[in-house]
Amino acid sequence: xxxxxxxxxxxxxxxxxxxxxxxxxxxxxxxNRDQLAAAMFDWIETWYNPRRRHSYxxxxxxxxxxxxxAA
Length: 71
Prior knowledge:
Structural class: mainly alpha
Number of helices: 3
Order of helices and strands: HHH
Distance between the termini: 34 Å
Number of domains: 1
């Protein structure tokens, strides 16, 4: 963690919310909060956590990385 005002203070959280905003919130509208909450849960659990690619995993999704290194 950085110090107050440092550019690295919230970089992980900012990257997450930037992706959420760009890939979900800017693309759709919802009639109520329950629909929004369900859409956010679905985005996190079906795309962000299991399938997003990450440089730490050599550009593979977490599932693909675990499958390739399960031996």
